[in-house]
Amino acid sequence: PWPQPNFGSGTGGWDEPRATPEMPGRRPSVRESDDGAIMIPGPRRAGVGLRTHRKGRTVLIPASGAPIQVEVDLREPEVVDGSPLHARILATADEDASVSRCELVLVQKVAYQYNQSGMFTVISRTSEVVAQTELPGWGPMIAGEVVGAPVALTVPANSLGTTTSKLIEITWEVRATVHLDSTATAGASTPLVVLARARDCAGAAMTAPRAVDRRMARLSIEQLSSRRLVPGVALSGVVGIAPSRSWTARSAQVALIRREHVERGPWVGTDPARNPAHEQKDAETVVARQTLAEGMALDPSRPQQLSFLLTSPRDLGAASMGTPEFRVD
């Protein structure tokens, strides 16, 4: 089966099938044909399983009675939405066979949590093919022969990026299927990381900063180096503190927080009156924090300004996004 989301594992990841070792042996040298396909004469391979690379993994999926094994390799394990995805389909013949056509599809899987009846947490899971392409087959293959074909498709623009957060998990998968003249099929899949530009949320950068009055003091963001957060890039600014009366603060901190809001579960139809209410769920995650001062003596006659420098992690877990069901800021 395809990997399924497992929110209870503590890792926020997807359960992986257990590997079945392949037969040992070296892959022979590669010879490329005029049409871009590669043909590799070599020994037969027995067994299928999970092969792990530093940049990704290929899951081999056995098909009942299929005389070939299939792999799919990506040129890059990460791609930005709206950009082309380049892959290569490799087929190894365990016995003589004939390939009629090949398919490559891009699958988006979305899983998110929402409330039901205000008491229970339910997980909604969907899987959708968002892009696909088809190649003509290369005809007969002899036992032990390996044939590879380059293929490309485009990740749709404004797609939701790969997300691993408290309430929302979005993964992407590239699947290859080889169809034989004998009506049998064989396939493989490999995960893909999609980086979102979050262009649909760009309007948030135009909203005015909001000051918060805590009765003891009024807090505000006086300066901010950028309203667009880039993973691994520092974010600097100035925090303003206007005390309402004289007092001593234990500390002053600034934090970078990812907020998740799930509005509802999946609807049946479009009429809100015919769908459940009170399904909202919220979560916050502190991704970076800095202590600016400790033991501060505050005086209403002396407002203070404190500079900060936050370095965002390389993996933010999620890009800004908004759908009818949920939102991340």
Briefly summarize what is shown:
The chain is mainly β and 329 residues long. It has no helices and 21 strands. The protein has strands at 31-32, 38-41, 50-52, 57-61, 68-74, 78-80, 84-93, 97-116, 120-141, 145-154, 163-164, 168-180, 185-195, 212-213, 217-224, 234-243, 247-262, 281-298, 304-311, 321-322, 326-328.
Describe, in plain words, how this protein is organized in 3D.
The chain is an all-beta fold and 329 residues long. Helices cover 0% and strands 54% of the residues. It contains no helices and 21 strands. β8 and β9 form a beta hairpin. It is elongated, with a radius of gyration of 26 Å.
Radius of gyration: 26 Å
Helix content: under 10%
Overall SS class: mainly beta
Our estimate of the beta-strand percent is over 45%
**How many distinct helices?**
0
- Major sheet size, sense and barrel closure: 8 strands, mixed
Low-pLDDT stretches are 1-64
Shape: elongated
Q: Can you write the helix and strand succession as a string?
A: EEEEEEEEEEEEEEEEEEEEE
Mean pLDDT: 80
Count the E strands. 21
The CA-CA distance between the termini, in Å, is 33 Å
What order do the helices and strands come in, and which of them pair?
Layout: E1 31-32, E2 38-41, E3 50-52, E4 57-61, E5 68-74, E6 78-80, E7 84-93, E8 97-116, E9 120-141, E10 145-154, E11 163-164, E12 168-180, E13 185-195, E14 212-213, E15 217-224, E16 234-243, E17 247-262, E18 281-298, E19 304-311, E20 321-322, E21 326-328
Parallel strand pairs: 6-13
Antiparallel strand pairs: 1-2, 2-10, 3-4, 4-13, 5-7, 7-10, 8-9, 8-12, 11-12, 12-13, 14-15, 15-16, 16-19, 17-18, 17-21, 20-21
